[in-house]
Write a structure and sequence with these properties.
single chain; TIM Barrel; eight-stranded parallel barrel; two-stranded antiparallel sheet; 40% helix; globular; FAD-linked_oxidoreductase-like; flavoprotein; FAD binding
Length: 303
Amino acid sequence: MDSKTLAISIQSLTFQPLTSKMKEVMAMMDRQLSVAQFGEMSEPRFELIPTDRIVERATAALPPHATLTITCSPKKGVDATIETAIALAPHFARVVPHIAARMIRSGGHLDAMLEELQANDLDEIFVIGGDQRQPLGPYHHGFDLLQSLATREHEICRIGIPAYPEGHPDIGSDILAKDVLAKAPYAHYAVTQMCFDPDQVLAWVRSQREAGLQLPFYLGIPGPVKPDKLIRIATRIGVTDSIRFLRKNLKLTGKMLRGYDASDLLSTYAPHLNESDNGIAGFHMYTFNELDTLKKIFGRIAI
């Protein structure tokens, strides 16, 4: 199926009201414990995009004990990410800026960012390569930045890295497998890309453990997002296989698509949070800034 046909199918979706099972699993995000193997306490994690009024909207919609992560895009730049993270920090338990290696202009620029984070008591970052086509400075990949951080004086005490159970549109699977293993000694946890097929993700987790990767994983789950927006995002990040899986497993009323109920995805993951062999630390929600819908969810489950 081509992207245009797939888009037409997805645009027919409407999200159903939350089921009691969905509420129960979502509520679990508030009390999730990581596996004993890693001995960490996990709080709800929500990824935000630094846009206008995001600070106001986030403080109105999200629980103050949550961890927020702030994305980094070529359009806004890494400095906008830092600025947004600093503005959100007084309102939430933890705020984690994404630091895109390819958007750092120089070693001096990196040092200035680290000093700014320290001055505002931000001690955790999420290191990515970034979508910048041409690097603005000396760091071409996330691994380059991780190595540089290891040689610098700073107060960062936790570093996260991305992982791709369904692959990456611009990077081969063999390279991805080597990349995450190379980064692991410099990191404290990994967050998986959004994927709708839980069996594929869990199989990938097991394969990573067999390959020797011991980092805790936060499993990336999609937040409540409108279907047309979902297909645009899925196409851009290269998870079209997941969209096909989603479409295949939708409930049908006659021959009309009714909608996607994320409770099955979350319920499949839930039992594995307590399996020490998996090392699953919790969930990471890609909100796509659909915060009004999230606020309604939290109101129902008293998160």
